[in-house]
Amino acid sequence: MGSIHRQLAARDIGAGDRVAIVLPNGPEMASSFLAVASGLSAAPLNPAYREAEYEFYLSDLRPKLVLVEPGSDNPVRTAAARLGIPFTEVRIAEDAPAGAFSLWDEEAGCVPPGPQHEALVLHTSGTTSRPKVVPLSQANVHASANNIAGTLRLTQDDHCLNIMPLFHIHGLMAVVLASMTAGASVCCTPGFNALRFFGWAEEEKPSWYSAVPTMHQAILQRAERNPQAVETMALRFVRSSSASLPPVVFKQLQETFRCPVIEAYGMTEAAHQMASNPLPPGEQKPGHVGKAAGPEIRILDGEGTELGVGVEGEVCIKGANVTAGYENNAAANTASFTNGWFRTGDQGFLDQDGYLKITGRIKEIINRGGEKVSPLEVDDVLLEHPAVRQAVTFAMPHKALGEEVAAAVVLVEGASELQDFAGGTLAAYKVPRRIVILDEVPKGRRARCSASGWPSCSTWARPER
User: Fold this and answer.
1) What percentage of residues in the chain have a pLDDT greater than 90?
2) What is the dihedral of CA 325, 61, 432, 465, to 10 degrees?
């Protein structure tokens, strides 16, 4: 890591400066995150983004450098060049061990960062079409990594099979950084693949893995066809986060892997973990995201008054892992903080044992299996199509994902190409799977919209992939 810091210093890139990372899941993605975040500020970006998305995020983040994989033709190159941001391919020697890389030969002296220097910066969708920038300090990520490692009782004997994308807070913090904090190890796969999961597990013999509920469901489906692999697995626990874990899936995981299932609750603004079910002898409550596991948790009403046990209100947090505020967004900061408490936008209550139950979302965010989508961001893209006069994007119930993206539009003329049009600008998970054609979009709160909420409408939907 020190060598990478010195190489960056040779190009006048140091503590507090941002370096965007656009690499596929794997050892180099994990090690580049660790190398950059430990001395500067890492800005991991989804390698599946389109050129227009990269241009938006790079314009917002203003990194001093973009890292790409060797031989990559990723459109981030074009976007960075247009914005005058330098990019470089990571150099990987033929005989290099997993994760080892360099940038260039020059090195210079560098100054280590302080606790308040930025370590990680990510975007999170908000209630406007513009995603918000969440800066996380060295102190934030250090506190969060220690919280997670402590909750899971990680030791140097633990080995995690990572299947989470490493441009999201879940994989970066709960898997990579928490493991490194405890001196544990991680197998960095190319990304989630249910068909390969049990092959990887047989080879790596992990003691745990963490995933979102939809991944767990896909793994359970494959488990039925891999009884021998399941039988030989010796997991200490299975962890779930980023979306609500249905109690039936909790039970199936517990029965299949014969180990505790630890559901946790996290978000980018908290450097991931806020609450978690404890390991035994503590109780794991299906349908609950556990007890406070790092920051303090309170349930507040709209005026900021604390509510009692079992009373539903907004989930609010305060702690060393919580961001100091969104970047260049005074309005969002005013709305999100009350007397030092961060308002998560989630609705829930604490039971008599201190376990948190999430009952819904106050903020208008679509949670597609852990992927957060801003409805107005999708609206803006649909409205760019010349055939669309009005558009409103909303959440549609989905058995596996929890929520799916749908949209209602009022047309000037035919709309058979709308999804392909949106896909030219948006990442695939943001593209509406159903488009409802209406004569007029209903007025009122978006939260009341649903895929079946309008009478006598025609629909055109792309089949599930």
Assistant:
1) 71
2) -110
Set out the domains of the chain in order of their start, with CATH numbers.
Answer: 183-363 (3.40.50.12780), 366-461 (3.30.300.30)
Q: Which of 398, 372, 415, 402 is nearest to 464 (CA)?
A: 398
Nearest to 392 by CA among 346, 460, 447: 447
CA quadruple 174, 176, 178, 184: dihedral sign: positive
pLDDT digits (tens, 9 = 90+) for 70-81: 999 999 999 999
Specify the DSSP class assigned to residue 148.
Answer: H
Q: Do 370 and 170 form a contact (C-beta atoms < 8 A)?
A: yes
| Nearest alpha-carbon partner for 394 in 370, 369, 377 | 377
Neighbouring-strand partners of residue 20 = 43, 66
What rounded mean pLDDT belongs to the chain? 90
Taking the C-alpha atoms of 329, 293, 147 and 167 in order, what is their torsion angle to the nearest 10 degrees? -50
Task: Provide the token pair at 319.
Answer: 């702690």
pTM over the 0.85 mark: no
Higher pLDDT, 464 or 373: 373
User: Which burial class, exposed, middle or buried, applies to 436 when counting CB atoms under 10 A from its CB (0-12, 13-18, 19+)?
Assistant: buried
Residue 253: both structure tokens together: 């995981």
In this predicted model, what pLDDT tens digit does every residue of 325-366 receive, in sequence order? 999 999 999 999 999 999 999 989 999 999 999 987 776 778
